[in-house]
Amino acid sequence: MAGRSKSLDGLFRPRSVAVVGASRRQGAIGRQVVANLVEAGFEGPVYAVNPKTKVVHSMPTYASIGRIPGPVDLAVLVVPAVDVLRVAEACGRKGVKGLVVITAGFREIGGEGVTREKRLLAIARRYGMRVIGPNCMGVINTDPAFSLSASFSATYPSPGAVAMVSQSGALGEAILADATASGIGVSMFASVGNRVDVTAADLIEYWEHDDHVKVILLYIESFGDPAHFVEVARRVTRHKAIIAVKAGRSEAGAAAASSHTGSIAGADIAADTMLAQCGVLRVESLRKMFALAAALLHQPVPKGARIAVVTNAGGPGILATDALSGCGLEMAEFAEATTAALVKALPAEASVQNPVDLIASADADRYRASVGPVIRDKGVDALIVLFVSPIMIDAAAVAQAIVDEVQGTGKPVLAVVMGRSRGDEALEILRRAGIVVYRYPEDAAATMHMLVERGRMLRRKPGKRPRFNVRAQGPRTALRGAKAGWLDSRRAEALLAAYGIPFAKSIRVKEPGDAATAAHEIGFPVVLKAEASDLLHKSDLHAVVTGLHTGDEVFAAAKELLKRLRRRFPDVTLQVQQRAPGHREVLLGMKRDPRYGPLFVAGLGGVQVEVLRDFAVRVGPIDDRSPAEMFESLQGAALLQAFRGDPAADLAAASEVLLRLQQLVDDHPRIAEAEINPFILAAPGQPSVAVDARVRLSE
Amino acid sequence: MAGRSKSLDGLFRPRSVAVVGASRRQGAIGRQVVANLVEAGFEGPVYAVNPKTKVVHSMPTYASIGRIPGPVDLAVLVVPAVDVLRVAEACGRKGVKGLVVITAGFREIGGEGVTREKRLLAIARRYGMRVIGPNCMGVINTDPAFSLSASFSATYPSPGAVAMVSQSGALGEAILADATASGIGVSMFASVGNRVDVTAADLIEYWEHDDHVKVILLYIESFGDPAHFVEVARRVTRHKAIIAVKAGRSEAGAAAASSHTGSIAGADIAADTMLAQCGVLRVESLRKMFALAAALLHQPVPKGARIAVVTNAGGPGILATDALSGCGLEMAEFAEATTAALVKALPAEASVQNPVDLIASADADRYRASVGPVIRDKGVDALIVLFVSPIMIDAAAVAQAIVDEVQGTGKPVLAVVMGRSRGDEALEILRRAGIVVYRYPEDAAATMHMLVERGRMLRRKPGKRPRFNVRAQGPRTALRGAKAGWLDSRRAEALLAAYGIPFAKSIRVKEPGDAATAAHEIGFPVVLKAEASDLLHKSDLHAVVTGLHTGDEVFAAAKELLKRLRRRFPDVTLQVQQRAPGHREVLLGMKRDPRYGPLFVAGLGGVQVEVLRDFAVRVGPIDDRSPAEMFESLQGAALLQAFRGDPAADLAAASEVLLRLQQLVDDHPRIAEAEINPFILAAPGQPSVAVDARVRLSE
User: Fold this and answer.
1) Shortest CB distance from A391 goes to which of B152, B178, B355?
2) B644 touches chain A (CB under 8 A)
3) How much is the ipTM here?
4) From the CB of residue B608, how many other CB atoms can be counted at a distance below 10 Å?
5) Chain B residues touching A390 at Cβ < 8 A
6) Are residues B386 and B282 both part of a single domain?
7) Domain limit, last residue, from B277, B294, B311
8) Listed residue (A501, A479, A548) closest to A693, CA to CA
9) CB A370: neighbour CB atoms within 10 A?
10) N- to C-terminal Cα distance for chain B?
11) CB-based contact (8 Å) between B135 and chain A?
């Protein structure tokens, strides 16, 4: 792996660069790339390659890469698509280490483009070259030792501690421009295009131990190799923050992502949970990405979610409070000593509660006397300080007072400065001290939310993966000869039961008389279900009769079921089942995604899950902390807790079932899908049991 | 009303202004107000009043308002709080028509401040003066006939078509500064402070027929007189858009709003529904307010929610699609002719589906050939056009092509321009044509969402308020002597039943034997409930036994209930109730708010409503379209529709109950709270019935 990532040096740290397809024409990409390399001040030689012209951008040209006298580390290809393979081959022969293929006309156009892309990769592999692109905007490295702009970006960013990957070339341009406008310096940048070779994950790995890079920003539309991404990101986010804008969040957006990049966008829900599981901070807009990057570069991560707000204007204080609450953060409650200090320092009209309102007459002294006690309060994890600059107040003195008081506290502070004095000395004083300044309270609140999330992620202790003793032989035998498709209920249950998943007691019969007998054996009340090979959605067909209290009722219900369903389902039989003693229903399941592997699902069970679609998803592997986190994240999580005199549901039982299910599907890769719905949860200590389950096998 | 609003002319269209408390001191508000009046170029005379100094800002001063030789229309008071009443009295005697009281130290400080504020109002009423403030920043009117800045705002906005009210002085300053920065011109501005007299509603009414004012912006923290606001806003929003940022959305924010303005912020849920009901567009941030204001000033409102996106960069197109879907808007589906035109005009790599991706090489011709067919498609209600300016494309030509194609279509168009060429000629061409340009896709999407909302509001036909024939005499008699507090179940049911609300058949008994007899009379299965005067939350105490199928079961359950509950509730009796035939449960209720009047509630019934808190609220009066809208807005709305083989619930029955409940509580103002939960809905045509209800009376 180390060798693999180091090999990107040919792309980002070349000693010489050739531009193949360099052009004289104003506005041509082949000219812009040459101009950018020269303008950025690349430290090594730049060779322009073009057999049809003698000079490009005042440089003598070479007829081919082979004709260049010295060695070439990096070649930027701007030739027509049909020439790319030939040129790549020549680059390989020349000993080029990195290719940036800007040319489009590969996988994204389908047909011959797909073939061409495959052949490009084969050539690169043969010669040990790493490739960025094709169909990309290029790479940038602002390190003064290189000053490399091997791209046609109109913006060359100022040096800084952020590294960025963009899967969209056009957006990459906008990202560079906006980063510069937001005052965020960039260390390295890559527009990865079709990612025939180098992916976002490769770049993250390359930047993992690069001390210039503090924060990594991603704009992605799909994952080339999710497993590799997860492995790398999970490791790197433990010490470097990664922020991602992943387009394709909505179904409509995902459809667009799929049509435009020529790759099938992974189901967004899997992408979302995957990013969260590996500690990547996902934001939905570039604005939020830059706002957050600035804070992560300069501020520590809070130890908790208790936020204090200090303001000199009530209105913005309320807007900040609203926005914080909207993100699920808490308003800190102050210790008595803090409140006492505020009472002493502030006039009667001020508010000493959080948000602390110093009122419009607040000067530097009043900020000093309030920000100090508040930030030092042990119940405060972070501070947002607002300042609407009134004409009669010395804004720079206020800024200095804030800076003095918060220094050395180790707690993050974000500032909001509104009104006329934006852009003046006060802003400069705050920024110099690393206090990021936002224009609106909601921007600061949204950023604080993500800082808190990052803190949570860093504090989260990894769980364990328990291994259960199971009867593995039965499933192995059962699956050996089984056909692909849905298993019948009996075999699905047997499979799950072999891995220790408990089921409600039940007896399968064929005739109404046997059903009544079975019911007496099980004990009343019972549930009666019809079963048949093609009968999947039982409740749609009223194939389940609940609350049967006598043998006569069972007999009558059985008769009716068989009569009604036999016509459509000739192999219909009956299952007489104990009424499960529990009081809450959940769904537990797994679906194998072709790209992400097993996705585990936990949600509210029974009818609700179908209609409300309230479920949590995790990309496997899950650990013993995962199921509880999944249940907590449900919208209707409260429905599993104690209420109205009923005890809480035994979520530990449900968690164990999900982990046992994971063991089952890991042991038996032919299981494509498994769903236990409902699993009926009792109070802790009482038996929780599954009453229905489905299992689907792949070929 | 006309006379009332016209009287604000003294505040906004004065012929002369006196500043009482004018000051020589640099940085003093009393100096800034004088300087602002002069600098803005007020058309009439400005008089500086200060008995202690001879000259302020190069103006000779007057010792008192009475000493001013000519008439004074507007007086701005910047004197200490203790002097305000005396000065106001003098202003009244002088014939002043409008007072702007900038001085703080009134209701917001409590105690003597409250008294002072009341006395200020009394003086104003006596002399027929209208008052803005106290504790405010002043008023502005940019109409060149007045050029009035009677405020200490550091910003004097450029003239324009927006009128603004801010309840926060400090934020008012920020709003003016940001409006100016956003290129939004302002007609009139008022910072209303404590609103002792002039409220936001008064100002809206004043601007109702003012042709200079096209869009009204509000920053509010609470409503002085909700009923007046509703009456005015409901009328004005039919022809002028009103956008509001109301702080105090969260519970924490509401607590802050209440402590800092000295007014008790109304429950935000009531404020939210009230604003929506009177057609006010509520946004959660100033950023969104300005983004929306710009669009409303220059673009028409869409006739539907089907949005098209045209882009030259896939990534931003996907981000726009994501943001639109996130707002609940639809991606338009193109007619065949449109798709054919796009196929013809675009290269193979482009996407002809919505979002249309012209790819990076798109020039003006390609924009022209795609924007035209798309905007003219009958299935497209509005367009967002994105442009990430690549170096080789003539951005100004692209902008001109967009402008040419969309003109005269009557459909709203918003633009997003990203990348380097922001601020250049292209932006100017778009803006001159009234096409608002945003920096990020999500800003355009959020704005489009509100434009669609405004379109919906304008198209919504007002419903009717049906009047039911009811037996009003019974309730009148019953309520005459009733004590305040919760009614017992029997009387609550009788009250509701008199207004035609159907209940499940039931019989009340005292002994187990009678319960069994009653059950036989009603027919099995039955439900048995314990009732007692203090027994409110029955299910918490397991005081309801369902699914009783035999007389023996009823007897046993009745015995157990009485034995268990009699100790704690000596007056416990029993209700034997028919099991309601329906299959879905809703809650229907009313709670009278001291400030907003009756709030009507509809939500999912039974256990869910308590735990998931999924309900919709409307401020009364509601009409016959309201209940259906309320049910549709529930998160779990799908639970009331047909699914899994069960028919939809009879929402018409539930709607009628809510309207009958409204008639009941309107007829009987002593009803403070009424709740029918659950109301069990059957399929349409089957009987839907209430099975439990509570009614609380006020004194």
Assistant:
1) B152
2) yes
3) 0.82
4) 22
5) 170, 173
6) no
7) B294
8) A501
9) 28
10) 34
11) no
